[in-house]
Amino acid sequence: MDVSSAVEKIKSMEVRGAGKIARFAVATVRDYVNNSGTDDIKELQQEVLEVFRQLNESRPTAVSLRNSLRYVYNHSIKQLSGKSKSLDEWKKQVADACESFISKSEAAKEQIAKLGSDLVGDGFSIQTHCNSQMALAVIIEAHNQGKSPKVYATESRPWYQGHLTVRQLAEAKVPVTLIVDSAVRHFMEQVDLVLVGADTISAEGDLINKIGTVQLALAAGDAGVPFVVCAETYKFSPESLTENGGGVIIEERAAEEVVPDPSAFPGVDIVNPVFDRTPAKLIKEIITEVGIIKPSGAKDLIEKEFGSGEDLDFLSGKE
Ligand code: RUB
Fold this sequence. Notes:
By secondary structure, the chain is of the alpha/beta class. The chain is built from 10 helices and 10 strands. It has helices at 3-11, 18-35, 41-56, 63-80, 87-117, 133-144, 161-171, 184-188, 213-223, 298-306; strands spanning 125-128, 150-154, 176-179, 193-196, 200-201, 207-210, 227-230, 275-278, 285-288, 291-293. The protein has a 7-stranded mixed β-sheet. Strand 2, helix 7 and strand 3 form a beta-alpha-beta unit. The protein is globular and about 65 Å long. The two termini are 29 Å apart. Ribulose-1,5-diphosphate binds at residues 16-19, 62, 130, 132-134, 161, 197-199, 209-210, 274.
């Protein structure tokens, strides 16, 4: 697939969800490098950085996309710089770094499912929001262990990712109930645990996830139900160590996603922010592949995984 089609698939949300976007982006880089017809390494390097930039701009909120590209840069292009390598060796190292990210990401999901399933008691009712492969992996693992979880899943308007969630759970034979977004507090009385995914986690331990997540966290807090986030380490933002407020852009999408014909509402401003920020104080724990942490541990985790920020401008191509 060419890069512009890949970018379009991410923008149109044919490929969506922070983990899937990250794996899809690096698979696009791998295919670009493998299919490149150029015989000049410097030229290919510049082209690959341009591919990084186009992919990085396709959706602004999830840091997973940027971190997946950063991983490939640090494990290939940065290490190759100044070394004399043949074109084939250069291509192989970049493609291997892409494959390595994909396998690490899949292994992280399995590990999070295992660690997270320990938080699920027998017969638990779990509430979730949007369509997070991480949250679903935990629930399905608990189900496979015979813990018989039941799930309340929100529709997640306006894009209805909840429909994907209920179908996925029903297919895995997990009992699931679809509810409207405004019913989260009503059903919280019957819920033992809230599990959601993450688009970005900041150094302060704040969560940026699908719009409505903060309402779910407030409802859980009010009802005394633990609110837990399932997130691979590449969902944590190294930029947030230095940028005030975490440097996270909340994506706004078209008004047509809210009402099919905005012109039928003359004089009405229709806005569609698709993510929101849940403060650390509402989050009980974050399940990562390197362990279950408190939100106050986010800064340490970021420093351990990403260093203190020296690679933050890797997309500029500066060394
Ligand atoms: C998806 C969303 C998901 C996170 C985590 O939003 O908010 O909760 O991306 O997903 P969108 P995962 O549908 O707008 O991409 O756990 O699958 O990475």
